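Exercise (ungraded).
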Amino acid sequence: MHEYSVCLALMEQVERVAREHGAGRVERIVLKIGPLSGVEAPLLQHAWPLVAAGTLAADAELVTETAPVVVRCTQCGAESEAAPNRLLCGQCGDFRTRLVSGDEMLLASLELARIDEVKASCV
Amino acid sequence: MCDTCGCNITSGNRHLLRPGGRLERSGDGRAAVSVLQGLLSENDHQAGHNRSHFDAHGVLAVNLMSSPGAGKTRLLEATIGALGGEFAMAVVEGDLETENDAERIRAHGVEAVQIATGSACHLDAHMVHDALHRLDLTGLDILFIENVGNLVCPASFDLGQHRNITLLSVPEGDDKPAKYPVMFRAADLVLLTKTDLLPYLTDFDPGRAERCLRELASESPLLALSPATGEGLDGWLAWLRDEVAAQRERVAQGLSARPDIQPEGAALHLREPRGSALPAAPGRGGAAATAGGD
């Protein structure tokens, strides 16, 4: 359910970045969504068309990239991949680890078409 | 958070920043723009303002999260009963509908503002900000924010609180942290509630609940209590007293705090505060202390 809120927030950012770059249309949106971000990529994909309808990003391709869950052990220093609900060190098994990657919820990049190009393609 | 200092860059996405720069032209004349901004940066910005507002009034803001019916309101009633003479408290209540919880709090002589979220499954920083317009923080020691009962969505939204507390009630089962890792990872303190039911729900193993929590790389304390019998309340009240004292000390030094579980980017975001960073809060390993006005 909160994926819709996230899409609304994404739309605001996309429109702002497009404005800053004088873009008339957004062609591609790349998100980075980690398994521990609290957001599900398929639900974002479902919610997105509702939010994007009628905007300059209506036809944009929404790409969600994931990142592996990686922890760094504060005891032995090893970095290892882990399951989202088992963040133990893969080397020594200690639970005192820090998450290095896996909780990202980022707008990574946009591909934009400039206003003049949009006009040209509309003619 | 911030889109200028690089605090959102982690080893998971750093490669996106490499060659091509911020504005890369692709072959067909389209512009590829690297943004790398948290999707909830708008919310986080408002949360930062809320936090500054709490700090300006010297208030400790605590966010209570759990599934529906885990005993958040009951815990607050017991807390008000025990600490009413010691601290000035207020409560922001989040529910989809009704003023029921706010009325329960008001019956104890404590101010409560109800946020009826309609169909929204969580509170966000803007809702809390709006609620603050209906609440005078002057003279308050603790503001409790009772989030919407939900073990999923509330974990994703910073409200401006200093500490997160997640409740796990005995009837829910001891493997809840393994099932809802995002929520339990966000907790600075986990409270095992309704322990008076342990004799009846014999398949609940408190040791297993703690193991599931530790497997999330959480060093947060886990306290068992029952507001119904009063068992274990002392530990919770001691934790609160320590946190109020820590908040007063931070405020005096122009520092602030946010819940300890943060993406690695938050560590990059830490800048040299005015004065020195405080040691970790009692019972916590390495609670983040940042300069005020974040």
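Further reading is listed at the end of the chapter. For now, observe: Chain B touches chain A through 49 residues (CB under 8 Å). Confidence is low (pLDDT under 50) at residues 1-25, 263-294 of chain B.
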